[in-house]
Amino acid sequence: MMKIAIVNRYFPPSKASTGDLAREFAEKMGRLFPQDQLIIIATDAEYKGGWSDGKIIPTEVLRTSSYYDGSSQVLRFVSGLIEGRQLAKKAFQEADVVLSMTNPPLVNLWMGREANRTNKPLIEWTLDLYPLALHTSNNLSSQHPLYRWFKSQVESYPPDYHLFLGEGQRQKVQETLGYSRPYSIYPCGYKKVEASSERPSWKQEYGQDDIWIGYVGNIGEAHSLDALARFGRMLPSHIHLVFSSYGAKSLMLKQELKKSPNIHWAEAIPDTELPHLDLQLVSLLPSWTHVSVPSKAVSSISMGIPIIFIGEKESDTWQMFGDAGWHLQEDFSPQALEALFGELTPKEIQKKQKQASHLSKSIENQIEGSITQVKTFIEGYRKTL
Question: In order of start, what are the domains of the chain with their CATH numbers?
Fold first, then answer.
Protein backbone atom coordinates (compact mmCIF):
# COMPACT_ATOMS: atom_id res chain seq x y z
CA MET A 1 0.00 0.00 0.00
CA MET A 2 1.30 3.44 -0.96
CA LYS A 3 0.55 6.75 0.70
CA ILE A 4 -0.45 9.50 -1.72
CA ALA A 5 -0.57 13.12 -0.49
CA ILE A 6 -2.50 16.03 -1.99
CA VAL A 7 -1.19 19.41 -0.83
CA ASN A 8 -2.80 22.86 -0.82
CA ARG A 9 -2.85 25.74 1.62
CA TYR A 10 -6.62 25.48 1.99
CA PHE A 11 -8.92 22.52 2.39
CA PRO A 12 -12.58 22.35 3.45
CA PRO A 13 -14.20 23.49 5.63
CA SER A 14 -12.08 26.55 4.76
CA LYS A 15 -14.07 28.59 2.21
CA ALA A 16 -11.57 28.75 -0.64
CA SER A 17 -12.20 27.67 -4.21
CA THR A 18 -8.79 25.98 -4.39
CA GLY A 19 -9.76 23.96 -1.33
CA ASP A 20 -12.81 22.67 -3.19
CA LEU A 21 -10.58 21.85 -6.17
CA ALA A 22 -8.26 19.89 -3.87
CA ARG A 23 -11.22 17.99 -2.44
CA GLU A 24 -12.59 17.17 -5.90
CA PHE A 25 -9.18 15.93 -7.02
CA ALA A 26 -8.89 13.85 -3.85
CA GLU A 27 -12.25 12.23 -4.64
CA LYS A 28 -11.01 11.23 -8.09
CA MET A 29 -7.73 9.89 -6.71
CA GLY A 30 -9.57 7.93 -4.05
CA ARG A 31 -11.59 6.16 -6.75
CA LEU A 32 -8.46 5.44 -8.80
CA PHE A 33 -6.40 4.11 -5.90
CA PRO A 34 -8.84 2.41 -3.49
CA GLN A 35 -6.09 0.12 -2.19
CA ASP A 36 -3.82 3.01 -1.21
CA GLN A 37 -3.98 5.58 1.57
CA LEU A 38 -4.88 9.13 0.54
CA ILE A 39 -3.69 11.97 2.79
CA ILE A 40 -4.50 15.67 2.60
CA ILE A 41 -1.79 18.08 3.74
CA ALA A 42 -3.09 21.62 4.34
CA THR A 43 -2.67 24.53 6.70
CA ASP A 44 -5.18 25.61 9.33
CA ALA A 45 -5.76 28.92 7.49
CA GLU A 46 -9.29 30.22 6.94
CA TYR A 47 -9.93 31.92 3.61
CA LYS A 48 -11.45 35.36 3.99
CA GLY A 49 -14.20 36.41 1.65
CA GLY A 50 -14.66 33.34 -0.51
CA TRP A 51 -17.20 30.55 -0.38
CA SER A 52 -17.26 26.81 -0.54
CA ASP A 53 -19.87 24.22 -1.41
CA GLY A 54 -19.30 22.86 2.10
CA LYS A 55 -18.69 19.26 1.07
CA ILE A 56 -16.19 17.18 3.00
CA ILE A 57 -14.77 13.72 2.33
CA PRO A 58 -13.77 10.94 4.75
CA THR A 59 -10.04 11.36 4.13
CA GLU A 60 -7.31 12.00 6.67
CA VAL A 61 -6.36 15.70 6.79
CA LEU A 62 -3.05 16.67 8.38
CA ARG A 63 -2.76 20.39 9.05
CA THR A 64 0.27 22.58 9.58
CA SER A 65 0.27 26.06 11.10
CA SER A 66 -0.56 29.24 9.22
CA TYR A 67 0.97 32.51 10.39
CA TYR A 68 -0.44 35.62 8.81
CA ASP A 69 -3.58 36.54 6.86
CA GLY A 70 -3.53 40.30 7.21
CA SER A 71 -3.19 43.06 4.62
CA SER A 72 0.60 43.50 4.66
CA GLN A 73 1.97 42.05 1.42
CA VAL A 74 5.45 41.64 2.90
CA LEU A 75 4.21 39.69 5.92
CA ARG A 76 1.89 37.59 3.77
CA PHE A 77 4.79 36.75 1.48
CA VAL A 78 7.14 35.78 4.31
CA SER A 79 4.38 33.78 6.00
CA GLY A 80 3.68 31.97 2.73
CA LEU A 81 7.33 30.97 2.38
CA ILE A 82 7.36 29.49 5.88
CA GLU A 83 4.05 27.71 5.35
CA GLY A 84 5.20 26.31 2.01
CA ARG A 85 8.36 24.86 3.51
CA GLN A 86 6.38 23.24 6.32
CA LEU A 87 3.83 21.77 3.91
CA ALA A 88 6.60 20.32 1.73
CA LYS A 89 8.48 18.75 4.62
CA LYS A 90 5.27 17.28 6.07
CA ALA A 91 4.12 15.90 2.71
CA PHE A 92 7.36 14.07 1.95
CA GLN A 93 7.62 12.79 5.51
CA GLU A 94 4.15 11.26 5.32
CA ALA A 95 3.73 10.10 1.72
CA ASP A 96 5.35 8.04 -1.02
CA VAL A 97 3.92 10.20 -3.83
CA VAL A 98 3.05 13.90 -3.52
CA LEU A 99 0.63 15.89 -5.67
CA SER A 100 0.95 19.60 -4.92
CA MET A 101 -1.09 22.56 -6.00
CA THR A 102 0.52 26.02 -6.06
CA ASN A 103 -0.85 27.72 -2.96
CA PRO A 104 0.84 29.18 -0.92
CA PRO A 105 3.01 31.04 -3.42
CA LEU A 106 6.35 29.34 -4.10
CA VAL A 107 5.32 26.10 -2.42
CA ASN A 108 6.55 24.57 -5.70
CA LEU A 109 10.10 25.68 -4.81
CA TRP A 110 10.04 23.80 -1.51
CA MET A 111 8.27 20.81 -3.05
CA GLY A 112 10.95 20.46 -5.71
CA ARG A 113 13.77 20.63 -3.16
CA GLU A 114 12.11 18.03 -0.89
CA ALA A 115 11.36 15.71 -3.81
CA ASN A 116 15.01 15.88 -4.81
CA ARG A 117 16.21 15.30 -1.24
CA THR A 118 13.94 12.31 -0.57
CA ASN A 119 14.01 10.88 -4.11
CA LYS A 120 10.21 10.65 -4.13
CA PRO A 121 8.02 11.62 -7.11
CA LEU A 122 6.34 15.02 -7.25
CA ILE A 123 3.28 15.84 -9.37
CA GLU A 124 2.45 19.54 -9.67
CA TRP A 125 -0.93 20.98 -10.64
CA THR A 126 0.00 24.50 -11.74
CA LEU A 127 -2.97 26.71 -10.92
CA ASP A 128 -0.74 29.80 -10.78
CA LEU A 129 2.69 29.92 -12.31
CA TYR A 130 5.35 30.77 -9.71
CA PRO A 131 7.72 32.51 -9.47
CA LEU A 132 6.46 34.35 -12.57
CA ALA A 133 3.32 35.48 -10.72
CA LEU A 134 5.51 37.46 -8.29
CA HIS A 135 6.87 39.54 -11.14
CA THR A 136 3.47 39.82 -12.86
CA SER A 137 1.83 41.12 -9.68
CA ASN A 138 4.63 43.68 -9.24
CA ASN A 139 5.73 42.17 -5.92
CA LEU A 140 9.27 41.57 -7.17
CA SER A 141 11.21 42.82 -10.16
CA SER A 142 12.47 40.10 -12.48
CA GLN A 143 15.97 41.52 -11.84
CA HIS A 144 15.70 41.40 -8.05
CA PRO A 145 18.30 39.00 -6.56
CA LEU A 146 15.62 37.27 -4.51
CA TYR A 147 13.42 36.69 -7.57
CA ARG A 148 16.38 35.36 -9.53
CA TRP A 149 17.18 32.91 -6.70
CA PHE A 150 13.56 31.73 -6.55
CA LYS A 151 13.58 31.21 -10.31
CA SER A 152 16.88 29.31 -10.25
CA GLN A 153 15.58 26.96 -7.55
CA VAL A 154 12.35 26.20 -9.44
CA GLU A 155 14.38 25.62 -12.62
CA SER A 156 16.78 23.29 -10.77
CA TYR A 157 14.13 21.17 -9.06
CA PRO A 158 11.17 20.69 -11.43
CA PRO A 159 8.33 18.25 -10.71
CA ASP A 160 8.41 14.74 -12.14
CA TYR A 161 4.97 15.16 -13.70
CA HIS A 162 3.06 18.32 -14.54
CA LEU A 163 -0.64 19.10 -14.74
CA PHE A 164 -1.16 22.34 -16.68
CA LEU A 165 -4.33 24.37 -17.11
CA GLY A 166 -3.72 24.76 -20.83
CA GLU A 167 -1.23 24.29 -23.62
CA GLY A 168 -0.20 27.95 -23.53
CA GLN A 169 0.73 27.64 -19.87
CA ARG A 170 2.86 24.59 -20.67
CA GLN A 171 4.71 26.49 -23.39
CA LYS A 172 5.22 29.40 -20.99
CA VAL A 173 6.92 27.10 -18.49
CA GLN A 174 9.18 25.63 -21.15
CA GLU A 175 10.12 29.08 -22.47
CA THR A 176 10.70 30.82 -19.13
CA LEU A 177 11.85 28.05 -16.80
CA GLY A 178 13.65 26.00 -19.40
CA TYR A 179 12.46 22.51 -18.57
CA SER A 180 10.04 20.01 -20.01
CA ARG A 181 8.48 17.14 -18.08
CA PRO A 182 5.80 14.53 -18.79
CA TYR A 183 2.50 16.39 -18.57
CA SER A 184 -1.24 16.41 -19.05
CA ILE A 185 -3.66 19.29 -19.59
CA TYR A 186 -6.05 19.42 -16.65
CA PRO A 187 -8.38 22.48 -16.66
CA CYS A 188 -9.69 23.47 -13.25
CA GLY A 189 -13.23 24.50 -12.41
CA TYR A 190 -15.30 21.84 -14.19
CA LYS A 191 -18.87 21.73 -12.84
CA LYS A 192 -21.88 19.72 -13.88
CA VAL A 193 -25.08 20.78 -12.11
CA GLU A 194 -28.81 20.74 -12.67
CA ALA A 195 -30.55 24.13 -12.73
CA SER A 196 -32.83 24.93 -9.81
CA SER A 197 -36.50 24.82 -10.70
CA GLU A 198 -37.25 28.21 -9.14
CA ARG A 199 -36.24 31.56 -10.62
CA PRO A 200 -33.37 32.99 -8.51
CA SER A 201 -34.02 35.93 -6.20
CA TRP A 202 -31.64 38.12 -8.23
CA LYS A 203 -33.65 37.46 -11.39
CA GLN A 204 -37.15 38.47 -10.26
CA GLU A 205 -39.57 40.93 -11.88
CA TYR A 206 -37.68 41.61 -15.07
CA GLY A 207 -38.58 41.19 -18.72
CA GLN A 208 -38.57 37.71 -20.21
CA ASP A 209 -36.30 38.86 -23.04
CA ASP A 210 -33.73 40.47 -20.77
CA ILE A 211 -30.18 39.09 -20.91
CA TRP A 212 -28.37 38.14 -17.73
CA ILE A 213 -24.59 38.14 -17.47
CA GLY A 214 -22.84 36.92 -14.34
CA TYR A 215 -19.43 37.53 -12.83
CA VAL A 216 -19.00 34.82 -10.21
CA GLY A 217 -15.75 34.52 -8.28
CA ASN A 218 -12.59 36.38 -7.40
CA ILE A 219 -11.77 39.92 -8.51
CA GLY A 220 -8.11 40.05 -7.60
CA GLU A 221 -4.70 41.04 -8.89
CA ALA A 222 -5.14 39.14 -12.17
CA HIS A 223 -8.33 40.99 -13.11
CA SER A 224 -8.87 44.44 -14.59
CA LEU A 225 -10.89 46.70 -12.30
CA ASP A 226 -11.00 49.37 -15.01
CA ALA A 227 -12.30 47.03 -17.74
CA LEU A 228 -15.00 45.54 -15.51
CA ALA A 229 -16.12 49.01 -14.40
CA ARG A 230 -16.30 50.31 -17.99
CA PHE A 231 -18.24 47.21 -19.04
CA GLY A 232 -20.75 47.70 -16.23
CA ARG A 233 -21.29 51.41 -16.88
CA MET A 234 -22.25 50.88 -20.53
CA LEU A 235 -24.93 48.21 -20.14
CA PRO A 236 -28.01 48.79 -22.30
CA SER A 237 -31.39 48.67 -20.55
CA HIS A 238 -32.17 45.05 -21.45
CA ILE A 239 -28.85 43.59 -20.22
CA HIS A 240 -28.21 42.91 -16.54
CA LEU A 241 -24.91 42.16 -14.84
CA VAL A 242 -24.95 40.30 -11.54
CA PHE A 243 -21.81 40.14 -9.41
CA SER A 244 -21.24 37.42 -6.85
CA SER A 245 -17.65 38.29 -6.11
CA TYR A 246 -14.91 38.58 -3.53
CA GLY A 247 -11.24 39.49 -3.57
CA ALA A 248 -8.96 42.51 -3.36
CA LYS A 249 -10.80 44.57 -6.00
CA SER A 250 -14.40 43.52 -5.35
CA LEU A 251 -15.30 46.34 -2.95
CA MET A 252 -13.57 48.90 -5.17
CA LEU A 253 -15.62 47.74 -8.14
CA LYS A 254 -18.82 47.95 -6.12
CA GLN A 255 -17.97 51.56 -5.30
CA GLU A 256 -17.20 52.30 -8.97
CA LEU A 257 -20.56 50.91 -10.11
CA LYS A 258 -22.79 52.11 -7.27
CA LYS A 259 -24.68 54.56 -9.52
CA SER A 260 -24.89 52.29 -12.56
CA PRO A 261 -28.29 50.80 -13.47
CA ASN A 262 -28.77 47.11 -14.20
CA ILE A 263 -25.98 46.09 -11.80
CA HIS A 264 -26.93 43.53 -9.15
CA TRP A 265 -24.91 42.21 -6.22
CA ALA A 266 -25.46 38.78 -4.69
CA GLU A 267 -23.69 37.43 -1.60
CA ALA A 268 -23.23 33.98 -3.07
CA ILE A 269 -24.90 32.29 -6.01
CA PRO A 270 -25.37 28.53 -5.48
CA ASP A 271 -24.14 26.35 -8.32
CA THR A 272 -27.74 25.31 -9.07
CA GLU A 273 -28.62 28.95 -9.89
CA LEU A 274 -25.73 29.49 -12.30
CA PRO A 275 -27.55 27.85 -15.27
CA HIS A 276 -30.10 30.69 -14.99
CA LEU A 277 -27.42 33.03 -16.38
CA ASP A 278 -27.29 33.58 -20.13
CA LEU A 279 -23.58 34.43 -20.16
CA GLN A 280 -20.64 34.68 -17.81
CA LEU A 281 -18.06 37.47 -17.84
CA VAL A 282 -14.41 36.44 -17.50
CA SER A 283 -11.44 38.78 -17.13
CA LEU A 284 -7.66 38.33 -17.21
CA LEU A 285 -5.09 41.11 -17.41
CA PRO A 286 -2.72 40.76 -20.39
CA SER A 287 0.32 40.47 -18.09
CA TRP A 288 -1.26 37.41 -16.45
CA THR A 289 -1.72 35.50 -19.71
CA HIS A 290 -0.55 31.88 -19.14
CA VAL A 291 0.47 32.73 -15.55
CA SER A 292 -3.11 31.99 -14.56
CA VAL A 293 -6.17 30.58 -16.35
CA PRO A 294 -9.54 31.65 -14.84
CA SER A 295 -11.45 28.67 -13.51
CA LYS A 296 -14.74 30.58 -13.90
CA ALA A 297 -14.42 30.15 -17.67
CA VAL A 298 -14.15 26.37 -17.31
CA SER A 299 -17.08 26.32 -14.87
CA SER A 300 -19.22 28.37 -17.22
CA ILE A 301 -18.51 26.34 -20.35
CA SER A 302 -18.93 23.04 -18.50
CA MET A 303 -22.48 24.12 -17.60
CA GLY A 304 -23.24 25.11 -21.19
CA ILE A 305 -23.03 28.86 -20.51
CA PRO A 306 -21.16 30.97 -23.10
CA ILE A 307 -18.58 33.53 -21.97
CA ILE A 308 -17.55 37.10 -22.66
CA PHE A 309 -13.78 37.13 -22.27
CA ILE A 310 -11.84 40.32 -21.57
CA GLY A 311 -8.20 39.44 -22.20
CA GLU A 312 -5.70 38.34 -24.80
CA LYS A 313 -6.75 36.07 -27.67
CA GLU A 314 -3.61 33.92 -27.24
CA SER A 315 -4.63 33.05 -23.68
CA ASP A 316 -5.66 29.48 -22.94
CA THR A 317 -9.15 30.69 -22.04
CA TRP A 318 -9.82 32.03 -25.53
CA GLN A 319 -7.88 29.31 -27.35
CA MET A 320 -9.93 26.60 -25.62
CA PHE A 321 -13.34 28.28 -25.45
CA GLY A 322 -13.42 31.02 -28.09
CA ASP A 323 -15.99 29.15 -30.17
CA ALA A 324 -18.44 29.53 -27.29
CA GLY A 325 -17.98 33.18 -26.51
CA TRP A 326 -17.34 36.80 -27.37
CA HIS A 327 -14.04 38.61 -26.99
CA LEU A 328 -12.91 42.07 -25.87
CA GLN A 329 -9.39 43.42 -25.49
CA GLU A 330 -8.64 44.75 -22.02
CA ASP A 331 -8.46 48.31 -23.41
CA PHE A 332 -11.67 47.95 -25.44
CA SER A 333 -13.23 51.08 -26.89
CA PRO A 334 -16.84 52.18 -26.29
CA GLN A 335 -17.54 51.35 -29.94
CA ALA A 336 -16.23 47.79 -29.52
CA LEU A 337 -18.43 47.25 -26.48
CA GLU A 338 -21.50 48.68 -28.22
CA ALA A 339 -20.87 46.34 -31.16
CA LEU A 340 -20.60 43.37 -28.82
CA PHE A 341 -23.84 44.24 -27.06
CA GLY A 342 -25.48 44.44 -30.48
CA GLU A 343 -24.45 40.85 -31.19
CA LEU A 344 -26.05 39.52 -27.99
CA THR A 345 -29.34 38.44 -29.49
CA PRO A 346 -31.28 35.41 -28.24
CA LYS A 347 -30.51 33.59 -31.49
CA GLU A 348 -26.75 34.20 -31.27
CA ILE A 349 -26.64 33.33 -27.56
CA GLN A 350 -28.43 30.06 -28.31
CA LYS A 351 -25.80 29.22 -30.96
CA LYS A 352 -23.01 29.83 -28.46
CA GLN A 353 -24.83 27.76 -25.83
CA LYS A 354 -24.78 24.79 -28.19
CA GLN A 355 -21.05 25.31 -28.72
CA ALA A 356 -20.52 25.50 -24.95
CA SER A 357 -22.38 22.22 -24.44
CA HIS A 358 -20.20 20.60 -27.10
CA LEU A 359 -17.01 21.94 -25.47
CA SER A 360 -18.22 20.77 -22.06
CA LYS A 361 -17.95 17.17 -23.20
CA SER A 362 -14.45 17.86 -24.51
CA ILE A 363 -13.40 19.25 -21.11
CA GLU A 364 -14.81 16.20 -19.36
CA ASN A 365 -12.92 13.87 -21.71
CA GLN A 366 -9.74 15.92 -21.25
CA ILE A 367 -9.94 15.66 -17.47
CA GLU A 368 -10.66 11.93 -17.49
CA GLY A 369 -7.79 11.31 -19.89
CA SER A 370 -5.41 13.36 -17.74
CA ILE A 371 -6.41 11.50 -14.59
CA THR A 372 -5.74 8.22 -16.37
CA GLN A 373 -2.28 9.47 -17.33
CA VAL A 374 -1.56 10.44 -13.73
CA LYS A 375 -2.58 6.94 -12.67
CA THR A 376 -0.22 5.44 -15.25
CA PHE A 377 2.63 7.59 -13.92
CA ILE A 378 1.99 6.58 -10.30
CA GLU A 379 1.62 2.91 -11.18
CA GLY A 380 4.94 3.11 -13.01
CA TYR A 381 6.56 4.41 -9.84
CA ARG A 382 4.92 1.66 -7.78
CA LYS A 383 6.77 -0.93 -9.87
CA THR A 384 10.09 0.52 -8.77
CA LEU A 385 9.38 0.08 -5.06
Answer: 3-186 (3.40.50.2000), 201-361 (3.40.50.2000)
